[in-house]
Amino acid sequence: MKLIMLGSGTSTGVPRIGNDWGLCDPTEPKNRRTRVSIIVESAAGSRILVDTSPDLRQQLLTAGIRTVDAVVWTHDHADHCHGIDDLRPMRFGRDGAIPGYASTETVRRLRQRFSYVFAGKYGYPSIVQLETLERVKIVAGFGIASCEMPHGPMETTGFRFDCDGKSIGYTTDFCEITDEMVDLFSGIDILVTDCLRRENHPTHASLDMALEFAVRTRARQTVLTHLDKSMDYATLSAETPDDVIPGYDGLEIDLG
């Protein structure tokens, strides 16, 4: 089982437009961050894409990814779904649409905004067969479990993927640690967690909250993501425990 981090940045990316690097060293390649998205891959080669960031096309080209077996969405904010049209080339040559899954509310919002993706239009076939997560237990050979997480006035979906005897959790965009989150990700091999900045934020996890989440879940390894321009890679690496690492675009962790 493998984690492939396609993007690790916040909604504006790093640098921000205007070449604004904030506190990030522009000479460190790991500080150049596109919007968040990951792929989980099984030993058999099956892949699930989590979120379709606005940078998805370039992310997939850089990672050498031609196909995925399913897509799941955490929520419908622009930095997590506005690259949805870049799924079209992966529909070419398939017998049917790409399976896609999200919470009931996210499904409703995605259908409202991107109807052509799910229903086809003007003779074009549908790109994704979108379904709610209710009663879904297996996707592309992965065991999949999820929970809803507080994200300011709304909720996002956290995912746990189990395959080949290993587990990866993905929890971006949350502002509170709930008991349900701790239970779902307890003992996970890799926990990928929201970590926007050091200061508290009304809709995102701070560094202290991310580290608390790692401890409470007893994650074997934790990867920080959704990092803003204040989170310099080298500085952050020096202040985190050995089992916690800052994520970066192109990071791959093979669980064997």
TrEMBL record:
Entry-linked Gene3D superfamilies: Ribonuclease Z/Hydroxyacylglutathione hydrolase-like (3.60.15.10)
Keyword Cell membrane found: no
UniProt KW keywords: Hydrolase
Domain Metallo-beta-lactamase: 47-226
Bilayer-spanning residue ranges: none
Lipoprotein recorded as keyword: no
InterPro entries in the cross-refs: Metallo-B-lactamas (IPR001279), RibonucZ/Hydroxyglut_hydro (IPR036866)
GO molecular function: hydrolase activity
Protein name per UniProt: MBL fold metallo-hydrolase
